[in-house]
């Protein structure tokens, strides 16, 4: 790295500190040395890549220089995977190892570089140490070390490691103080204790902690400070996939942790606890049996803990939902029985009945017209059944001297008029027709009793990754009824629809489709085949008829 000190450089991305900040200068016959320690912290809030960092201890004899050592012996401090080396001319180089997973410092990461045995020159003053940082560009920062009269001094105050991690849950503080009758104390978090002037102490802070070393002698006092960084344990992610599953199914818990030394997952209720889990990430398949199971992840590190939750709910299953009888005469108000069987739900609701209802039960309804009854439960796709009331001809008579026949019907969308057994003619429910004179003719008017039977296609079925949904426009005309079909299937599969004599094959993404289901008297009106799903609708056509003989 070439350095041109006359240039103006942008500030460094990292925060730099040095201890001690005051050292005694050398005197005649009294050389002075200090053990320096540089602290490097990424406080930027994001990961920063860096090629190398150079600390210039200012080799020389002037007041602004610090050391007379042309060669230095830096030592790496336990921490991130970095190399340190002497760079000559009173300089020390620190750089990430070539095989390091990330060449730089992660957000919140810190490290230290120790430089023992730094020979201090004889000139009092303030040495201006320069930090060169080669990251996205060449950057520069400055640190100051004051050189004072020999005597009272703190010549060394270091921490190893500077930042705790899972493999190094504690740090060792080391210090050296000089001066006749010197007394030394160590303070942190509001507490102060007396220590030896040349000593060490193992510490295991739970949070990032500032330590202050104080030396006092001859009415003078000196302070040096350093910080031991404690990363915070965090849950980066924790969730269940899928969060909804059918009874007997499974879900996969996945987690990713930061700075955790241990972690476990507990389940709510009577569900089995997964217990201790892998670090720093992992996954686990669970088989919930309760309607709703909450899994609580607790991660611990450096005496702290955090929790996160993931919930898995069972999707209700409808084993049966029916109306009996499905078809009834109109106008009699006969009771019909709804019956159902649901699993994995707390309660169900059914239109036309009081809510809530038990999971297995039955109830009576008295529809006055063809009616859909819908069963619902939390997280359940609603299911419907239809109670069909037969269409009927309520009026069929001759009018105005038997020149005209008049009819009226209800409960259907059309009628058929047949004369002397000929092919019927479709007509409306309300109508009139001139009748011939001079010969006998048999007129018969009919209405379909339950045309909705072969267009009752309101359903949704799901198997694995396949979903088939169909709805119908229940208004029936002479052409038939319009069915709307949609589906969700894997991209390499297809759905087959048989409608009478026509057959259609549609693939992934080709829906939705609409088509007409035509009346038929036998066989399958239409059928849907999808992977894992087959739905068939069989018509059954009956008629309510009245005759008039002219």
Helix/strand layout:
Layout lengths: L14 E5 L2 E3 L7 E10 L6 E2 L2 E5 L18 E2 L5 E5 L4 E6 L7 E2 L4 E11 L4 E10 L3 E11 L4 E8 L10 E8 L4 E6 L2 E5 L2 E6 L5 E9 L2 E9 L5 E8 L2 E3 L4 E8 L3 E6 L7 E2 L4 E6 L5 E10 L2 E12 L1 E8 L2 E2 L7 E8 L5 E2 L9 E6 L5 E6 L6 E7 L2 E8 L4 E7 L4 E5 L5 E3 L3 E4 L7 E7 L10 E5 L2 E12 L2 E9 L5 E6 L2 E6 L5 E5 L8 E5 L2 E5 L5 E7 L1
Parallel strand pairs: 2-12, 21-27, 29-34
Antiparallel strand pairs: 1-3, 3-10, 4-9, 5-8, 5-11, 6-10, 7-8, 11-12, 13-14, 14-17, 15-16, 15-18, 18-19, 20-22, 22-25, 23-24, 23-26, 26-27, 28-30, 30-32, 31-33, 33-34, 35-36, 36-39, 37-38, 37-40, 40-49, 41-42, 42-43, 43-46, 44-45, 44-47, 47-48
Task: Measure the end-to-end span.
Answer: 116 Å
Number of strand elements: 49
* Poorly predicted ranges: 1-6, 450-457, 474-478, 538-544
CATH classification, class level of one domain: Mainly Beta
**In percent, how much strand structure appears in the residues?**
over 45%
Shape: rod-shaped
User: Helix- and strand-based class?
Assistant: mainly beta
CATH architecture of one domain: Sandwich
Which sequence of strands runs across the widest sheet?
A: 2-12-11-5-8-7
Q: What value does the Rg take, in angstroms? A: 44 Å
Helicity, as a percent range: under 10%
Largest sheet: 6 strands, mixed
Write the CATH fold name of one domain. Immunoglobulin-like
Q: How many H/I helical runs?
A: 0
Mean pLDDT: 82
């Amino acid at each position: 790295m070439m350095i041109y000190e006359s240039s103006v450089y942008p500030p460094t991305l990292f925060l730099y500190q040095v201890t001690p900040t005051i050292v005694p200068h050398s005197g005649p016959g009294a050389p002075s040395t200090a053990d320096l320690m540089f602290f490097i912290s990424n406080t930027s809030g994001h990961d920063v890549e860096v090629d190398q960092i150079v600390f210039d201890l200012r080799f020389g004899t002037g007041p602004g220089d610090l050391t007379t050592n042309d060669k230095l012996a830096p030592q790496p401090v336990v921490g991130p995977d970095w190399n340190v080396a002497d760079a000559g001319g009173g300089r020390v180089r620190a750089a990430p190892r070539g095989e390091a997973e990330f060449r730089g410092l992660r957000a919140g990461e810190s490290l230290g570089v120790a430089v023992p045995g730094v020979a201090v020159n004889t000139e009092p003053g303030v040495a201006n140490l320069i930090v060169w940082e080669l990251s996205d560009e060449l950057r520069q920062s400055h640190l100051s070390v004051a050189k004072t009269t020999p005597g009272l001094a703190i010549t060394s105050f270091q921490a190893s490691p500077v930042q705790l991690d899972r493999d190094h849950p504690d740090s060792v503080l080391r210090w050296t103080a000089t001066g006749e009758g010197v007394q030394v104390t160590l303070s942190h978090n509001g507490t102060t204790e007396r220590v030896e002037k040349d000593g060490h102490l193992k510490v295991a802070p739970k949070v990032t902690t500032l330590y202050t070393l104080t030396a006092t002698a001859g009415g003078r006092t000196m302070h040096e400070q350093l910080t031991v960084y404690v990363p915070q344990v965090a849950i980066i992610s924790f969730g269940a996939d899928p969060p909804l599953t059918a009874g007997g199914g499974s879900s996969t818990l996945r987690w990713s942790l930061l700075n955790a030394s241990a972690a476990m997952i507990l389940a709510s209720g009577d569900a089995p606890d997964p217990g201790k889990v892998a670090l720093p990430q992992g996954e686990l398949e669970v088989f919930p049996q309760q309607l709703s199971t909450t899994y609580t992840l607790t991660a611990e590190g450096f005496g702290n803990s955090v929790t996160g939750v993931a919930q898995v709910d069972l999707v209700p299953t409808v084993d049966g939902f029916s109306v009996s009888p499905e078809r009834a005469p109109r106008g009699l108000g006969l009771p019909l029985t709804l019956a159902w069987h649901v699993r994995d739900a707390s309660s169900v609701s059914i239109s036309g009945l009081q809510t809530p209802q038990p999971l297995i039960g039955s109830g009576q309804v008295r529809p006055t017209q063809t009616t859909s009854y819908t069963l619902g439960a939390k997280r359940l796709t609603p299911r419907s059944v239809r109670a069909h009331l037969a269409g009927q001809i309520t009026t069929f008579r001759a009018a105005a001297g038997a020149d005209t026949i008049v009819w009226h019907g209800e409960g259907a969308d059309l009628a058929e008029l047949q004369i002397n057994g000929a092919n019927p003619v479709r007509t409306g429910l309300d109508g009139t027709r001139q009748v011939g004179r001079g010969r006998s003719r048999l007129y018969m008017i009919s209405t379909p009793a339950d045309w909705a039977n072969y267009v009752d296609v309101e359903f949704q079925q799901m198997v694995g990754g396949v979903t088939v949904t169909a709805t119908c426009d229940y208004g029936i005309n002479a052409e038939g009824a319009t069915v709307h079909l949609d589906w969700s299937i894997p991209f390499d599969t297809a759905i087959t629809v048989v409608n009478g004599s026509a057959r259609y094959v549609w693939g992934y993404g080709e829906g939705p489709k609409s088509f007409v289901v035509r009346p038929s008297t036998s066989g399958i009106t239409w059928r849907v085949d999808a992977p894992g799903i087959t739905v068939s609708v069989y018509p059954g056509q009956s008629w309510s008829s009245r005759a008039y003989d002219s």
